[in-house]
Amino acid sequence: MSVSIVTGASRGIGLEITRSLLANNSAVVTISRSVSDELRGLQSLQLDIIQGDVADRDISKLAVDTAIAKHGKLDCVILNHGILSPVGRIADLALPHLRDSRGKILMVSSGAATGAYAAWGAYNASKAAMNTLAKTLAGEEKGVVSLAIRPGVVDTGMQEDIRRVGKTHMPPEMHSKFVELHSQGKLVKPQDTARVYANLAISSVNENLSNLSGQFLSWDGEELKDYR
Ligand SMILES: NC(=O)c1ccc[n+]([C@@H]2O[C@H](COP(=O)([O-])OP(=O)(O)OC[C@H]3O[C@@H](n4cnc5c(N)ncnc54)[C@H](OP(=O)(O)O)[C@@H]3O)[C@@H](O)[C@H]2O)c1
Hints:
By secondary structure, the protein is of the alpha/beta class. It has ten helices and seven strands. GO terms for molecular function: oxidoreductase activity, acting on NAD(P)H, oxygen as acceptor; oxidoreductase activity, acting on the CH-OH group of donors, NAD or NADP as acceptor.
């Protein structure tokens, strides 16, 4: 049984990654600041829900300690909640255990990392830094696979927010693009992109996966076709 930590699991992509991992008989420790009814509804012996902010070192430590105390190992950390500085903190806490399991760190990145989207300076920069962190870790930690993966434009609360309040600060044509993707039914379903992260988390590391370490990939790219 594989053991993963998923950050930002109360809704959206993180909730679906958690659902997919549990459906594959994996154990999961989740972190989110609130606990939604959907997440609570997944409750099982294989799920530990930790309520708190990943920015709080004690919360990240509790997640790592819970995985080790209950399951004796940690195979994967999926950094989905999306803010940079706490990302580094939980990665550091988890690394000794990921070295032992020859595990993985999967970062939920974004096209914004390379897209330099207008009005999203801090978001663009934090996702670009996330990609660099994945690359750096791959160089430093040869026994741990580190990947930054963009999930596509996904039908979650984040897109709802963009449609609702994006008009006030985004260029009109950019806002319209997101509104149209939604109205034309072209947003990626959270469960489709989540499956890729979950399948990567439960897969053992083979040579192909090892060779991808450090890269910025797209959930629907050729490199990840075996995990969709
Ligand atoms: N949706 C898209 O189109 C899209 C596109 C590209 C990249 N992404 C990336 O995908 C990831 C997930 O996004 P989403 O669309 O699923 O967004 P979402 O529906 O807004 O979910 C974000 C999740 O992160 C949690 N979270 C946020 N800050 C946290 C913190 N400091 N500590 C613990 N949990 C925290 C939230 O729960 P609480 O509020 O309960 O803490 C929630 O569960 C993000 O990294 C985002 O940048 C999304």
